[in-house]
Amino acid sequence: MCLNAEAHGPIVFYCLGMIRLRTRRALLALVVPALAVTLLPSGVTAAGPGPGLPKLAAVARIYPHLADGQVTRSPADGVSGVRANCEDGKVIEGAVGRSASYSTKRHPVGTPRNPSVDTSTMRFGSADRAEMLMNRIGAAFADCLLGDSSVRVTEFTAPVGDQRFGYVLRMDIMKRTLIMRWLVARDGRYVVLTGASSMGKKTPALAPFVRFTRLSLRAAR
């Protein structure tokens, strides 16, 4: 419905939020093939204090247009699962995460030159656990997103962390193109999912996005 919506204003931002949520569910396919991990309110006590998040000032050193922008952060919470049918699943024992979105007040969706950016930072019980979960990525990505013919997906890689998986997604919304660059990266027992979103024909630049992902990994600790 969002991809073909004939509406304006707040509807664009609502649809972007729904697409981001669906994308997070797909990209964080970190458990068994029957589950995909996503950062959702779990309704359970988080496993200790949550991992850190980048401060707006640090993000603005990478993306100067965000210097007078806005940031929305989530409190520490459990990392919940999403089943292969993309419905909510189980909470991952010993895992805790947080998320944040950074955007300008004038252009919450972002432009190719000045994208909005997001990060989810997660801490698992051990590096072995996080590595095992990273190795499972892809199952729910295919189930939840690749089956959608309205989404065009390409892969990319970047020198970040011990493991990483990158995707660029393109979809048409109200005769415009929404482009999202997403990267899942692991460093030890920490995993981050970063995203850069814009409306336009060009993909948000890779170099600052890699710096943002590295910043997120550092901040998570």
CATH topology: Protein Transport Mog1p, Chain A
DSSP helix count? 5
| CATH architecture identity | 3-Layer(aba) Sandwich
Number of DSSP strands?
9
Structurally, the number of domains stands at 1
Question: Mind explaining what this structure looks like?
Answer:
- It contains 5 helices and 9 strands.
- It is α+β, with helices and mostly antiparallel strands and 221 residues long.
- It has one domain: Protein Transport Mog1p, Chain A, CATH 3.40.1000.
- Strand 3 and strand 4 form a beta hairpin.
- Helix 1 packs antiparallel against helix 4.
- The longest helix is centred in the first third of the chain and has 18 residues.
- The chain starts with 9 loop residues before the first helix and ends with a helix.
- The N terminus is likely disordered.
SSE layout and pairings?
Layout: H1 10-27, E1 35-38, H2 56-62, E2 70-73, E3 77-83, E4 88-103, E5 116-123, H3 127-135, H4 139-146, E6 151-156, E7 163-173, E8 176-187, E9 190-199, H5 206-220
Antiparallel strand pairs: 1-3, 2-4, 3-4, 4-5, 5-9, 6-7, 7-8, 8-9
Helix pairs in contact: 1-4
Keywords:
Protein Transport Mog1p, Chain A; 9-stranded antiparallel β-sheet; alpha+beta; disordered N terminus; 221 residues; globular
